[in-house]
Amino acid sequence: MNDPMRTGPLLTMTGMTKQYPGCLANDHVSLTVERNQIHALLGENGAGKSTLVKTIYGVVKPDAGEIIWQGQKVAIQNPGHAQRLGVGMVFQHFSLFEALTVTENIALGLGSARERIGLRERIVRISNEYGLPLDPDRVVHDLSVGERQRIEIVRCLLQNPKLLIMDEPTSVLTPSEVKKLFVTLRRLAAEGCSILYISHKLEEVRALCSAATIMRFGKNVGECAPAEKTVKELAEIMINMTLHAPTPRPLTASSKPPRLVLDKLTIRSPHHFGTDLKAISLSLAGGEILGIAGIAGNGQSELMDALSGEVPAGKPESIMIDGVAAGHMGPHERRGIHGCFVPEERNGHGAVTAMTLAENAFLSGFTRQALVRFGIINTRKTAAFAEHIIRSFDVRTTGPKAEARSLSGGNLQKFLVGREVLQDPAVLVINQPTWGVDAGAALAIHEAIMALAEAGAAVMIISQDLDEIFVLADRIAVIAGGRVSAPVLKREATVESIGRLMGGTAAAEAPGEMALAE
Amino acid sequence: MLKIEPRGYESKFWRYASPVLALLLTGATSGLIFAAMGRPPGLTVYTFLIAPLLQQDGFEALVVKAAPLIMMGVGLSLAYRANVWNIGTDGQFTLGAICGGGMALAFPDAPAWAIFPAMIVAGAIGGMLNGGLVAWLRIRFNANEILTSLMFAYITQYLLVYLVTGPWRDPQGFGFPQTALFSDDALAPKLIEDTNVHIGVVLAPLIAIALWFMLEKTLLGYQFRVLGQATRAARFAGFSENRLVWIAMLISGGLAGLAGMLEATGTLGQLTTTLSPGYGFTAIIVAFLGRLNPLGVIPAGLLLALTYLGGDAAQINLGLPNAVTGIFQGILLFYLLGCDILLLNRFRWASTQAPTRAKAAQ
Q1: One domain for residues A86 and A176
Q2: Which residues, 6+ apart, have CB-to-CB distance to A474 below 8 Å?
Q3: Contact at 8 Å (CB) between B29 and B331?
Q4: Would the CB atoms of A352 and B226 count as touching at under 8 Å?
């Protein structure tokens, strides 16, 4: 009766420890996943969630700790071993070949030719059974992110897993796709495949998961049934501080003169798989925050490059900053007319990782802060500017001489946002203001953005995080397939209405082609 | 089992210790090779690295050899810091010598005050022409500068051979592949009477200091450094990659051309087919040994110059083949690049007590 292969927890981990150079990623972490359970692993970025699940999947070898799988002690050697035990994993970043079909991609992951027999039929059967609609003959390149995720899930399900690990699965999905995914996951759990669900989205975890393990700084800090806690309570356990929600901004009158105007901004992407920007028209007044929502890969980075001047627009008049035609200008000239920009990627784009904070402050600050005289860098003034950013934004570091790579993601992001905000811009554009940033830093960044708008700047935030957009923005527009929808006032927008626009890639495609032909 | 693991930061100690370790390993390895060739290893390394300095005029010979290496190494360290991989300095060196030397041959009766300055300009322009072509091919056609600059090195070498054996051959030279001797006014001014120590010997360190200042303290140098480390960040700041590629190729080419012209007028006094014993390629090792820092290039240039003298000494005293110099330099470059793994990584014995050890190591 008491056969541990059939009863008892599916997976028990105790004392899991993993040391990376300069960082104790897991410090005696425990985790128990029951059968038929959807178990959440909660924590901020850098809390050690990924290291822990990679241990289960055999990618990371722990320094210490014990793993009991179905009542038996195991040492998981590699992902192949994990798969044979019955562990499947869907990573946050997919590993798919764009030029191959769905079936070809899945076949590549299989071990032997024998397993490939009847593969296409099995893919069709599984995708129908679990509500994961998928055409096995489509080429991956043509598929949406949601469909690509389904390939990864089907790939796992073909192995009949007992435990399916999902790493931040909803960060790339529209609200309606999220709903469909949840139906599938509940069904899987009911049929005997437990799910380990990694996320920092608390609403989702409350709706989906029956148990949660919460981590902070590589340690366990709590176990709970998420449905019994409020989002605020969960967040407070996660970051160990009391949260004050930022006060919603009073809506500004848009009668002020516009500071940033885009007029039919159209740019063909130079990259093969890039997104073309199609006739984007927008107008931002001083004191206003415009949020651009959208699913990753719909033209956000292209829009950012066009606004910052890294990819100049064809017509000068298609981008106006404070009434000056700026479309043809490079980033340096745009800063000269009070435009400031924070790109999405910190490492190697917004900052040079191997350079000091002072040198990084110089990167985009030398124009407006007058840090150069006769071609020679004013080192003292540069260090003072860096010091000013560090103090004003509470950047945790040893000082201006610290290398950018020695900072945590949140601290570096505070530094980069601070670098632009402190230059007193007329127009500030930020792509993914708090991507991969801890909650404390995110709050500080949000407050700085709101204060800047209060002071009269026009701010555009491009974000995949709808919550963030609803907190910050006065008006909301959606970017899909390289087109931007007409902005709506926040009070007239709902998550559903915005979500529908986010999924509207196909509908927006046809008129876009006409605009390009003009 | 010996494992390599990332430090997560750049070691300050190994930044300076790694070239020293590379040198020691090079000494040990070449000692083994000499032993395998049946020579006493200790004596050979001594002949190679120490004996040349003890000779009469040893120091003068050293600085004269080092001057072109330093000039080229400085230009290369600048280009390499910007991720512009000019490896055709030998060609730029040769074209500089051809242009400077051609000027001397064309105007043998030009006034003294005019001819040498004009040759300096011509030499630099020759190198820049060669470097500029490489830059243009990269920017216009996206042609890899490693390939094009190397190919130009061979083209210019054959151009030199053609000129020296053909139209420019000295009619009174008994058919030897060499030009007429330059007039006295067209020779590089000597710093010390009756030696080869010419003006380039002081010019080289001055150029190194000037370029160090440019690289570390000016906006232009900052642009090179950002471009080399993060192309996207350079674009974000608004730095033009094309402009920087042009400047890097013109400076490194121009300096190589200047070095070539000084070599022709300072030590040879004429053009011959064997103008450069691979100086341009040795300069690549000089740049890396100097940590791509113009000031570090000065001692690196002296050391590599020593290997040339040592090669001559080993040939004369021990009867070793001339290829020994190339082998020694090749081993040195190999260890230099190899030891750099220690900058960002450390070795340790893998064991189950890893966490405690890793903590102790910090």
Answers
A1: yes
A2: A249, A251, A252, A288, A289, A290, A489, A490
A3: yes
A4: yes
Q: How far is residue A487's CA from residue A484's CA, in Å, rounded to a whole number?
A: 8
The H or E element containing residue B44 is: helix B41-49
- The answer to whether residues A334 and A476 belong to one domain is yes
Res A46 pLDDT > 80: no
Say whether B30 sits in a helix, a strand or coil.
Answer: helix
Check CB contact under 8 Å for B236 and A354. no
Residue A67 has pLDDT above 50, yes or no: yes
The structural domain count of chain A equals 2
**CA pair distance A463, B194, nearest whole angstrom:** 74
Of A308, A345, A355, the CB nearest to B229: A355
| CA quadruple B82, B83, B88, B93: dihedral, nearest 10 | 10
Sign of CA dihedral A205, A208, A213, A218: negative
| Side chain identity at residue A22, one-letter code | G
DSSP state of A375: T
Cβ-Cβ contacts under 8 Å, A358 against chain B: none
Q: Which residues of B touch A364 (CB under 8 A)?
A: 236-237
Q: Give me the residue from B5, B219, B359 closest to A377, CB to CB.
A: B219
Quickly state the pLDDT bin for B360 (edges 50, 70, 90).
Answer: very low
Bridge partners of residue A42, in order along the sequence: A199, A214
Mutate to test the interface with A, among B217, B236, B351 (most CBs of A within 10 A): B236
Per-residue pLDDT of B67-119, as tens digits, reads 999 999 999 999 999 999 999 999 999 999 999 999 999 998 888 888 999 99
- Residues of B with a Cβ under 8 Å from any A Cβ are 5-10, 217-220, 222, 225-226, 229-230, 232-233, 235-240, 352, 354-355, 358-359, 362
What pLDDT does residue A511 have? 38
pLDDT for residue A512? 36
The verdict on residue B270 lying in a domain is: yes
N residues, chain A: 518
Kindly report the CATH number assigned to the domain that includes residue A220: 3.40.50.300
- Tell me if B200 is assigned to some domain: yes
Phi, psi of A208 (to 5 degrees): -105, -40
Residues from chain A that touch B217, judged by Cβ atoms under 8 A, are 376-377, 379
* ipTM, two decimals: 0.84
Which chain A residues have a beta carbon less than 8 Å from that of B8? Answer: 20-23
Print the domain residue range for A413: 258-517
| Residue that has been written with the tokens 């890793």 in this structure | B358
Identify whether B69 is part of a domain: no
Q: Is residue A22 scored above 70 in pLDDT?
A: no
Interface of A with B in 325-384 (CB under 8 A): 330-335, 341, 343, 345, 348-355, 359, 362-364, 366, 372, 375-377, 379
- Test B232 with A345 for CB contact under 8 angstroms: yes
Same domain, A160 and A27: yes
> In terms of residue numbers, what domain contains B136?
82-295
Domain assignment present for residue B61? The answer is: no
**A-B contacts (CB, under 8 Å):** 88
Confidence label for B192 from pLDDT (cuts 50, 70 and 90): confident
